[in-house]
């Protein structure tokens, strides 16, 4: 199984340094998230600063940009990386699209299907480029005058619900999981829906490695605590037996505690259920549980509620784990 990374840095330069270290350690792909930075911009920096590691947006928001602009950005990034780019797309949630970005969110599955169709049409070239749907395009008299690095750029979709998973199985080259994706979720909920079509299945996990297993788990606890405080994840946690913990996390959030500071409410068994955390040997054993279920796993260092030096220490341990695996 391939080990990918989501490199962290207080500056874009530090992110690129972490990606270089991941490349040296033998990581497969460096993925760039989109929340506090622009995923394509950071992907461009990594592409320019590395030579062999894959580069992917993990994920870029599909609806906050026009599909044509997304296609052009992907083509530029594939050229810049020498054919190493993967376009990871996600819908985001309604509030993020409508309140943060001022774009429509209705019919997200159909909107994503149209987005990918338009991206593929722009990628293929030709004149005119026309697609009608929830998202439409009508371009005439335009051709991209630059040679493509590859005829087809891999598109990965982030999908949680069954409808988006079915769409991923139909049209995508790969699937990217949510940050909380234990092996049981892959086995029982994801793989049955994705079916037998061969796509690159990439799980995701917060990874905290330390010789002190307790310290490793405490670093990762704030990540789990953040999601435990979000109401939309309550059913998932309740099904795993953690309803009481989520109730406490939600109450603490409503009482004014920051969402990234709830790790003290999260028991070790809950951290173990949703993160790769512990000693190097414990983390290796946890990663083996994904064998046969995922083609790759995107590992990110814990950062919620931690100062920069703690995140750097966690990332160093993560990269040593990747190096020992390669």
From TrEMBL:
CDD domains: Tetrahydromethanopterin_reductase (cd01097)
Alphabetical keyword list: Membrane, Oxidoreductase, Transmembrane, Transmembrane helix
Pfam families, per the entry: Bac_luciferase
TM regions (residue ranges): 41-64
Gene3D superfamilies in the cross-refs: Luciferase-like domain
Domain Luciferase-like: 10-292
UniProt entry tagged with the keyword Nucleotide-binding: no
InterPro entries named among the record's database cross-references: F420-G6PD/mer, Luciferase-like_dom, Luciferase-like_sf
SUPFAM superfamilies in the cross-refs: Bacterial luciferase-like
Name recorded for this polypeptide: Luciferase-like protein
């Amino acid at each position: 199984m391939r080990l990918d990374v989501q490199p962290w840095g207080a500056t874009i330069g530090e992110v690129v340094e972490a990606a270089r270290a991941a490349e040296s350690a033998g990581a497969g792909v460096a993925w760039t998230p989109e929340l506090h930075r622009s995923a394509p911009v950071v992907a461009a920096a990594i592409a320019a600063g590395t030579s062999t590691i894959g580069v992917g947006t993990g994920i870029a928001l599909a609806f906050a940009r026009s599909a044509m602009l997304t296609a052009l950005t992907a083509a530029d990034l594939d050229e810049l990386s020498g054919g190493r780019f993967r376009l990871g797309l996600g819908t985001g949630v309604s509030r993020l699209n409508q309140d943060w970005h001022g774009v429509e969110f209705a019919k997200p599955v159909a909107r994503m299907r149209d987005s990918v169709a338009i991206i593929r049409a722009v990628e293929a070239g030709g004149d005119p480029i026309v697609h009608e749907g929830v998202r439409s395009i009508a371009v005439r008299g335009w051709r991209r005058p630059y040679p493509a690095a590859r005829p087809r750029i891999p598109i990965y979709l982030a999908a949680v619900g069954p409808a988006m998973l079915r769409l991923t199985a139909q049209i995508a080259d790969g699937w990217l999981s949510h940050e909380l994706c234990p092996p049981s979720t892959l086995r029982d909920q994801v793989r049955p829906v994705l079916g037998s079509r061969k796509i690159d299945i990439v799980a995701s996990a917060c990874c905290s490695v330390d010789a002190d297993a307790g310290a490793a788990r405490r670093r990762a606890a704030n990540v789990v605590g953040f999601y435990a405080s979000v109401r939309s994840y309550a059913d998932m946690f309740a099904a795993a037996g953690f309803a009481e913990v989520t109730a406490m996390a939600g109450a603490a959030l409503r009482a004014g505690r920051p969402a990234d500071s709830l790790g003290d409410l999260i028991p070790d068994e809950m951290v173990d259920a949703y993160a790769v955390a512990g000693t190097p040997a414990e983390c290796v054993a946890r990663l083996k549980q994904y064998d046969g279920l995922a083609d790759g796993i995107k590992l990110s260092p814990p950062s919620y509620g931690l100062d920069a030096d703690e995140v750097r220490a966690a990332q160093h341990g993560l990269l040593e784990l990747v190096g020992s695996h390669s």
